[in-house]
Design a protein that fits this description.
The chain is mainly α. Helix content is 76%, strand content 0%. The chain contains 5 helices and no strands. Bound molecules: MU-OXO-diiron.
């Protein structure tokens, strides 16, 4: 496969695995402050990020390319508040979106249509990723004072209902 596209995907695999690391760290922090629903939501988010990494991994191999793993930084381990954590997540997802768009630009420049087609899934996924984080940020902004505690409890119950859907494996 095209070397420039392959190198850029290798770099992106690191970012997806870092995202998994970051959200598992958030899950662990939410557990530590007794918000098990938030912890569940982030644990599943981490699993989905690993799936994103595997989608790229499988794609590179399917094109006869080589995956070379890079160092992954340690993620933060605590946040000032649930709102601060989700604002961090939204900002991180915006960075990932910009990276995926740059990857798409590289695939187009290199006239690599198969990679562009694969990347379209990630372009669409990023819309959802940002929307999900933004929606929780907006709800957490309503949480303050005594009435806020009830809202936080209800939101925690909502997020506890998230279930993991394994990706459909394409051979
Ligand atoms: Fe893999 Fe959250 O984007």
């Amino acid at each position: 496969m095209n070397d420039r596209v392959m190198d850029a995907i290798n770099e992106q695999i690191k970012w997806e695995l870092y995202s998994a690391y970051l959200y598992l760290s958030m899950s662990s922090w939410f557990e530590s402050i007794g918000l098990k629903g938030f912890a569940n939501w982030e644990r599943i988010q981490a699993m989905e990020e690993r799936d994103h990494a595997m989608k790229f991994y499988t794609y590179v191999l399917s094109r006869g390319g080589r995956v070379i793993f890079q160092s992954i930084d340690a993620p933060p381990s605590e946040w000032e508040s649930p709102l601060a954590a989700y604002e961090f997540q939204l900002s991180h997802e915006k960075t990932v979106t910009a990276r995926i768009e740059n990857l798409m630009n590289i695939a187009i420049e290199e006239k690599d249509h198969a990679s562009a087609s694969m990347l379209q899934w990630f372009i669409n996924e990023q819309v959802e990723e940002e929307e999900n984080a933004k929606s929780i940020v907006d709800q957490l902004k309503l949480v303050s004072g005594e009435t806020g505690k009830g809202l936080l409890y209800m939101l925690d119950k909502d997020l506890a209902a998230r279930v993991y859907h394994p990706p459909v494996v394409q051979e």
